[in-house]
Sequence to fold (399 residues):
Amino acid sequence: MNWRWISLAALLAALVIGYGALVERNPAPAANTGEAERPSYYLQDAVITQTAQDGSVSLRLVANRIEQQEHDDSITLDTVRVDYFQSPQHEWLLTAQRGLVPPTFRVVQLFGNVELRPADAQPTAFLRADAMAIDTQTNVAYSLSSPVRLRFGGHAMTVKHFRADLTNEKLQLESVNGRFDSH
Amino acid sequence: MAASIRTDGARVGALLALALLGPGIATAAELVRPGEAFSYEADNVTTELRSQTLEISGNVRVTQGASSIQSASAKATGPTENSRWSFQKGVRIVTSEAELDSDSADAAVVGGQISRARAQGSPAQFQQRGASADRQIRGRAGVIEYDFAAGVVTLTNQVWFSNGKDEFRGEVVIYNLRDERLQINPGGQGRVQGIIRPQGKTTVSPPPAPQPESGA
Fold:
């Protein structure tokens, strides 16, 4: 008798769980889809390469997913890596959770655990922030919000703004509150 | 307890147990404890990504535990755990034991801890904290070195030193902030000049700081 009740209860539980999973996999469509951005195309595990006038590679975007937005032709990227060739001999590596590239390709905006480092530098030579923009015309990386928390080698800081000149590799920080942090 | 000073030049090596200091001096120092964060703040910092040398300007303040160093500008070189800091203009070093004011100072960070500082000025000034006004330990010198861990200050180059009542002049003065022992010209370096005042004649004023020479 007990086994019958137990089996019945298990069957009911399985039905409830199964229904729940089905609902999760097929969510109800949004009531208003008119404002949702629709990609004109998207690419999975994609690489986009921008070349300079002389044909050399100036920018390489590698991302798990790349979408071009229909309304403004901007490109959004998920889990992104940027190989930025300031010159053929001077390469910078950037990684981030998300990225946004405008149609002009001039300023690349990166968000979520953004890390910038010279490709040929020691592992300690890096700049990490929550968000960062790279102006590929002036070769300057700068903060997108204020205040901004960043890590720089063994330093952890909160600053009002930062500006990294990629040409001379100098980083300028404003209203700095920092500490040594080896972690 | 009486203190004696030998002023006969070559045999000088005066070691004074300053029992005459009286109560009021903090002997239990609470300086930097291992693991306390080394932090800094400033209006502007410029650095290079590879070398990580920091050029700091505007209201510079470095803090670790109860110790702090302030200045108008500073430069830090080397890895963070073992870096060297150079402070310029209006330098003020404060710990739970002492205060130093100088034109410039160099400080060493060893193992993430502020280890020692070397202050230079015309003159640099030192003052022990925690004493009453009439028993104030003070000193002036061209160079004052402060060992944070040992609690020892070494004053060199035209030293003036006072315990609030008596005063001494020499070329080298070593003062231990914790056991309050004073060495004047150890090793017989020049002559010691001292003024020991009788009880009741207190409150020594430090000599006026030398004025910068005018070009006219």
